[in-house]
Write the structure tokens for this entry.
Amino acid sequence: MKKTKYLIIGNSVSGVNCVEGIRQVDKKGKISIVSDEGVYNYSRPLISYYLGGRIEKSGMPFRDEGFYGENGAELFLNARAEKIDALKKNVTANGGAIEFEKLLIATGGRPFVPRIEGIDSAKEGVFTFTKLSDAEAIIKYIENESIKNAVVLGGGLIGLKCAEGLIERSIKTVIVELADRLLPNTLDKTASGIIEEALEKKECGLIKEETVSAIESRGGRVEGVRLKPGGKTLKTNLFVIAIGVSPDIDIAKAAGIKHGRGITVDSRMRTNFEYIYAAGDVAEGRDSLLGSNAVIAIWPVAAMQGRVAGINMAGGSAVYDGMFPMNAVDIAGVPVVSFGITNPPDTGEYEVLEKKGDGFYKKIVLKNNIISGCIFLGKIERSGIFSGIIRDRMDVTSFKKELLSEDFGLLVLPKEYRKHMVVGEGIEV
Amino acid sequence: MERKAKKIVIKENYCIGCRLCEVYCITQHSKSKDIIKTYKGKGPVPVSGICFEEKGSVSFAIQCRHCDDAPCVENCLTGAMYRDKETGRVLHNREKCVGCWMCVMLCPFGVIKIDRAEKKVVSKCDLCIDGAFPACVEHCPNEAICLVDEDGKKIEKT
């Protein structure tokens, strides 16, 4: 049986940050990583740029080729972890078992595929879109079959970026979204409206408040999709299901590791087994806005959690004090940044400030003069300041009237805060 | 151990709001590095790496803090935003940038500027990598921005 000190399942952002976290504390202990993918390292969010032909594969890694060697980490590719024996401390991957002292589960998310009528007989032309291999398969299919149009189910982040990649490949694309707006988790109708206009200019179709109920295929190849509730059929030979991801918890579940929607972790990213950690899209860590645990499937959370897990696995001490949902995206040339709660419930507790202008929109959601969330669309350059204000739960009473101003900047923040946020970083006020 | 970058310290009480820092930042990052050619020449005027803020009598110029724990570097999807191992500076490789705006979202100082059309980060302070001394500091008439070393000691232009 192979032996390692640290075993990491998953080679995306959490796994890589875990390696760095471990090496901050332990320079020598053996690190092994198992990945079910065949490439040494790449940014998952870049697959849409690859699909669109905007970058080459060589532009996709987020760490240099030398990363694993320099950090003394052995990488096993095409090795899917099949089983965790939590008590005997080993993981079975590719038929062989690897014994570990500390384990990180960073299996990420898995695309959610709904039960759609006819899905089993449609062998060709139906795809999901979360991995490089998905993008490669779509490109190959488009080229081999001379595909000219596509339907993307889902107007969230994955669906929109996939549609954008397809459009850049001159594929006529229609997005089908069940909600009344795009990016329903982050945008409101106003913000969505601006993006819808931009998509329309790129001749991207959009059907809202409908979903796909059936796939029609002939000889195993997709011919079209039927909408619900409208009942209309859209003819297409390429159908991408992009309605979201769910935490890939199967092997953890089978091993008796505690979970909710994702794997339950404490502030050190430990599971109910003290030598097993979880991080990233598979983990349910602290959401600092909710004040409870939740899966926040975004890059910065995965990076931070992976690093914290690594430090603790190596005997150091790091605490994950929680983050909150945030997204940065560019769709059809419209940049958008959003934080936290952007569609507050209508309970009277929340106050909403909004400003809409030519090609821009800004929305700030407050509760008791503390910002719960915001949307910046069109003009995003100074939005990062809000990431700090929200993280620090700052009372904005003294500069509330400035929040929407065009030249909002650090200057409107109270002098004390300005000083506090930049202590040791070079501002004297 | 990675080297920590030199830093620019801002003293807002000394800032007179002349914006010469921006003028010289732009000039230093132009092709010609000549002030007249930069502003009156044919090419586009570069975007400054400085965010100048002013309200009433208070003003200051802020640029990338070259943070020791830089969220823009840690979360860059492509490695376009990176830390220079030699100098500790946070630098940006335009070629690699795809305009995902992760760095913009995470910079608590809001000092990263973007080009919407090009879908790339267009400007951030590089502490004048091509020059010997940061141009904004050199030309500040009232020492409202100063360069300090890793220990916070002021560095004079030699």
The domain at 7-148 of chain B is CATH 3.30.70.20 (Alpha-Beta Plaits). The mean pLDDT of chain B is 91. The interface with chain A takes residues 7-13, 51, 53-55, 58-60, 62, 65, 67, 71, 74-79, 96, 98-110, 112-114, 116-117, 119, 148 of chain B (CB under 8 Å).
